[in-house]
Amino acid sequence: MAKLGPAQYSPYPVAVYEGVLNPPPGKALLFNDIVDEETAMREAAKAMLTRENATIFPGPQVLYAWNEEAKKKAKLIKEMAEVLNAKIIPMYDYRPKYPKIDPDIEINPNHPNLTIWHNKIKACIFIGVHCHYANVALKIIRSETDCFTIAMCSMAGHEDAMITVRDQHSEDLEKFIEIAKEVKKELGLA
Question: Which residue segments constitute the domains of the chain, with CATH numbers given?
């Protein structure tokens, strides 16, 4: 059963070992449960609007203008951050920076747990982060922090996120922004 962390300092509490798998197309994952995308989006918006230091982590797939979809998503992420009152910390560089990381000077996405600890982030969205990196980062975050993680993936999703919404493209981000606006009004934050 996937739980809000910290899970343990061990490689074994990964969600797939606990029987949690990615959702089928058209569905989303909310902790262990397969749900409708809209349900997951509402819960994601609620988490981002009610937890401290909500942050969006956009990755290279949206940070670099390599196609029209990436350009559109980048603009939508800025709008999303405004609606959610969230910070944006880009994950543009996956290269290791050893032997010492100084989180006051640089962002090191190879150690997302340090970024989350240092900034006291209690909810985050990964979007446009390459799947191989997101999979590892979400396992580290789940094991070592109590951050509520949300993955908005353009492919199959990530089972170690508290919420994963798969097959996300610009029209889906537009839908999420509208849902977030509704949730914000419902919570009396608008």
Answer: 27-92+105-186 (3.40.50.12640)
